[in-house]
């Protein structure tokens, strides 16, 4: 299976994607906990059905020490007891931020307030940018039908 497009074969797209990847690396350095970043990236990718991003973030999280139980339960986090209240708030914000077309109000005040109980303004900013970043990356990969399964930990960092 080959992707429909090789973005890096075209100068303008390659330049834009290099900047996008640089933004992703910058997010990794934010004060938002690394485990939270991977869980959020994974959940956004699950919602969007981005196989290559699910592959990447599952492997990155596992390499960072995340357990298989938690990784398997991200898709059903509401019913799982293995996530902290802070992680649950981040996952809920990520879901509403990803499903903006489905939820006329976008991210509700209640969801925002729960996230703000656990994260300071700098972390909330990183969380919002991460959700937006992942939605962009998912769409690029889905449209081009980027194949999944071959990602190696650290490949894009």
Quick structural gist:
The protein is mainly alpha-helical and 157 residues long. Helix content is 63%, strand content 0%.
Description:
Helices cover 63% and strands 0% of the residues. It has helices at 11-28, 34-48, 51-63, 68-73, 85-98, 109-118, 121-143. The protein is globular, with a radius of gyration of 15 Å. The protein starts with 10 loop residues before the first helix and ends in a 14-residue tail after the last helix.
Let me know the average pLDDT.
93
Helicity, in percent? 55-70%
**Strand proportion:** under 5%
What count of helical segments does DSSP give?
7
Tell me the overall shape.
globular
Stretches where pLDDT is under 50 for at least 5 consecutive residues are: none
What is the number of strand segments?
Answer: 0
Q: Note the main sheet.
A: none
Question: How would you spell out the order of helices and strands?
Answer: HHHHHHH
Distance, first to last CA: 24 Å
What would you report as the Rg, rounded to the nearest angstrom? 15 Å
Structural class from helices and strands? mainly alpha
Quaternary status: single chain
Task: Outline the fold blueprint.
Blueprint: H1 11-28, H2 34-48, H3 51-63, H4 68-73, H5 85-98, H6 109-118, H7 121-143
Features:
157 residues, mainly alpha, 7 helices
